[in-house]
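Section 3.1: Structural characterization of target chains.
Under the original work plan, the team committed to producing a structural model for every single-chain target entering the pipeline before any wet-lab resources were allocated. The record below documents one such target. The sequence was received from the expression subgroup and is listed exactly as submitted; it comprises 198 residues.
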Amino acid sequence: MVLWGLFAGPKHVYGLQKLFESQGKDRVVNLRSRASLYQALERLMRMGLVEVHETVRREGYPERVVYAITDAGRTAARDWLRDMLSATGGEFPDFIAALSILFGLAPAEAQAQLELRAERLSAQLADTEHELSAHPQLPRLFLLEEEYRRSVLQAEIDWLHAVVDELRTGRLTWSEQWLAEMFSAFNPDAAQDDEEDS
């Protein structure tokens, strides 16, 4: 995102931050703090993808370093974009990891947490709907991330409501005893190891 922010021309960190905010890119990546932008720029400079264009000094203001993208940075930005658009692996969201051990909570508590998540996602969905309707003059190309966010949020909310419904009605449930039985049934070697240890 930083490389693409520099495509139009050299900018200082504050200028990049304002650009991301004005374009809504701060909703896409976490580059809100200047410290994280400086860290990203330092990494990109070490990689030879960004360089210092100039240092601006104005009386009464701290100096500002203006950064520019290099030719290697332009190539890397396009390569990374191609990869990010087509790659499907290597993403490990916390929520999926949490679902894999949902049984660590009692069913009622799991239900409550999933209901809370659905409420929060519904608020995010309303915010996304607002973003989409607030800019009717923008070509669709510049709203694709919000369209995608809306689709993903709606799909997850629908899925959460279905799971919560199953928890509420008892169609999806578990207990300590049931979990122990399932563990023994699907991990016979572990049960045999326990017997040998005792």
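Residues 2-86 form a domain with the Arc Repressor Mutant, subunit A fold (CATH 1.10.10.10).
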